[in-house]
Amino acid sequence: GTIMDSRACVKMAAAAWASGFLYALLHTANTFSIPLCQGNTMDQFFCEIPQILKLSCSESYLREAGLLVVSACLDFGCFIFIVVSYVQIFTAVLSIPSEQGQHKAFSMCLPHLAMVSLFISTALFAYLKPPSISSPSLDLVMAVLYSVVP
To answer: In 3-state terms, what secondary structure has residue 56?
Structure first.
């Protein structure tokens, strides 16, 4: 209660909702403005930005690349926030005097940390892998791993 009061919780939730809404709004508006000249069928189970850009026939991908840079900055900020949060959590847990209490607290935190790590690592691999190892089946597996599994 001393570190996290209800006001701080509301502010963090509002920031998460607002940044998510802004991110979705920017990409949705830009996606609908891209002309598609190669049909509208892709080998994915949802419309991912890199897959949509493969169908584009104009130079409008530069606009989307700019939005991806903005979203990378937003993602980096979220990543830093998560790291700082976990440092504070682990510091608080390690200050618990009983080993049993520490074990209980870590057993609550580690599954979440595992899912966050799985999400971040598979998303980074999916978006930053070299085009030489890209294939539709690998793209589909990566999309499932970072969007469905966590």
So the answer is: strand
